[in-house]
Amino acid sequence: MLLLFKPRDAMYLGEGTLPFGKFEDTSEWQPITKCLEAGAERFPEKTMFRVGNPEGEITESYTYKETNEWANRVANGLKDEFGVKKGDKVGMYMLNCSEYVVSILAIHKTGAVPVPINKDEKGERLAYVINYSEMKALVMDPGSVPFIEEIGKDLTGLEVIFMTGDPAAVPAEIGGIKTLPFSTFDKFSGNNTGVEVTTQDMERCMFTSGTTGMPKGVARNHGGVVLTVRSYLQQQGIRSGDVLMSILSLGHANAQVMCLFSAMGAGATAVFFPRFSASSFWKWAAGCGATSINMLGAVAEYLWAAEPSEWDKKHKVRIMLGSPAPRNLPEFQERFGVRVIDGYGSTEMGMVLWKDPEDHRPGSSGFPMEGYYVELRDPADPSQVMRPFWDPYENPVPPDEAKGLLYIKPLIPHTTLNEYFKDERRTREAFDDDGFFNSDDLFARGIDGRYYFVGRFSRIRVSGENVDPIAVQDVAMQYEAIQEAVAVGIRLPNVSDDEIKLNVTLKQGATFDPVEFSKWMAEKVMVAMVPRFIEVYEDGFPVTATQKIKVAEIKEITDKTWDRQKAGLKFSARK
Length: 575
Description:
Blueprint: H1 33-42, E1 47-52, E2 58-63, H2 64-80, E3 89-93, H3 98-110, E4 113-116, H4 123-132, E5 135-140, H5 145-151, E6 160-163, E7 173-174, E8 177-181, E9 202-208, E10 216-221, H6 222-236, E11 243-246, H7 253-266, E12 269-272, H8 281-288, E13 292-296, H9 299-305, E14 319-323, H10 329-336, E15 339-346, E16 350-354, E17 367-368, E18 372-378, E19 381-385, E20 403-410, E21 417-420, H11 424-430, E22 437-445, E23 451-456, E24 460-462, E25 465-467, H12 469-476, E26 482-490, E27 499-506, H13 514-524, E28 533-536, H14 551-554, E29 562-563
Parallel strand pairs: 1-12, 3-4, 3-5, 5-6, 6-8, 11-12, 11-13, 13-14, 14-15, 27-28
Antiparallel strand pairs: 1-2, 7-8, 9-10, 10-21, 15-16, 16-17, 18-19, 18-20, 20-22, 22-23, 24-25, 26-27, 28-29
Helix pairs in contact: 1-2, 1-7, 2-3, 4-5, 6-7
């Protein structure tokens, strides 16, 4: 298939060229690591990526040649000494660092499959991901040691752990599993592995929140990387002179595909920081020379709420991808001197909708990208396709009857969800008989052809993480005092992310302390799953005449609702 690469207004283009082309002919697509290998030959001394420390100082820098050779050493070591072969799963559980970047590339070069683990997973859920993915090896940082030690006795197939940091500080084993320093790979050949990998091979198995309490593995092929990279270069105007910066975790697709891989596909430079700081964000961007950055969730709101500083416009950032874009978009763009582009994507489908930078229509997520066909369907009867009738120019707020579930049909093989790993039933249910994927997200389509995001149908998004409310209530039900639990998402005014409200009834005679419960839950799950609001219903949940819970009522914040934020109880993500 031939894809059209849209032209961009010069003001939205980076400097330089696209040395590896525009990826228009899908029959010629190759895994994106081929761009790294070509760059190592054509511009070996150009910086491929840099890494900063938690204070925002750039501490490491690697050229295309150095990156390729380091990735080859790791790949050859995995392949030749540790028996990692095509299709094997290799995990990564750590904060952003140079070893994380190189591990992803090295695993690709062996034909194996990276399994990035959310850095905040712990306990039973962490053990589940490691065991269920059939992970053969794991790369981790020193900060992960206590979490792996805690579950070591429950791990079944993990053969070896590679630990970053000081080699002299690496123990012989962690949780009973043989452990080696990451520097073990230094002795292996820096030549390309020669393993044949195509766009039809599995590129990653990324675990996201599951509806049965445990994460589900989203398996994607290498073709999906190329499709998203191609779209990113087109929509964001990325060229070889750009510097792409990410404060998002490399455990997520955004940092991997729309920073690392997109930089590689453009012959540009990527920069990673291990954490986000609203007060220092623009100073860090200026220091590393960033020209393009991605935002997720409430990042834009945190930036807007930060105290104004000399760095607000003292940077080279030209363009930002916001999912969603800030609500006060004109003011945000004026204050920080950037163009913010909205878009919509998912771990399963990649970037489906994208706004053109030349399009200043407020509130929309743009149009469908090449490679996808989309339609809205009636949430009450998904067999019914909805025709657009809403005029967003006359009424900026879509009526309820214009809101539909977004269904997505991939048009290019090997570019979207390949399978939910080892879950045939869920994979079958993900698509209808015509090959459409139910996004579980609500949109309204205007008669202008644009798509406008309305909200999530059943999932919620907390601090940039997709959280399944059923998974939250499944964990809560394990607490001794709780009889029933129902978790719901609440959208507070002028905030783009959701907050979790947990509604509970108690066992007869039981006492309940929300502080103690929250601390208990924080020990079992990642921080995003710990409810902010909790309400105890002493006389049972409010129900309708047909005994269905009145969801709208339990979503209300009342004088009986406990607020973790007001109580001053905070839990930090791992940093």
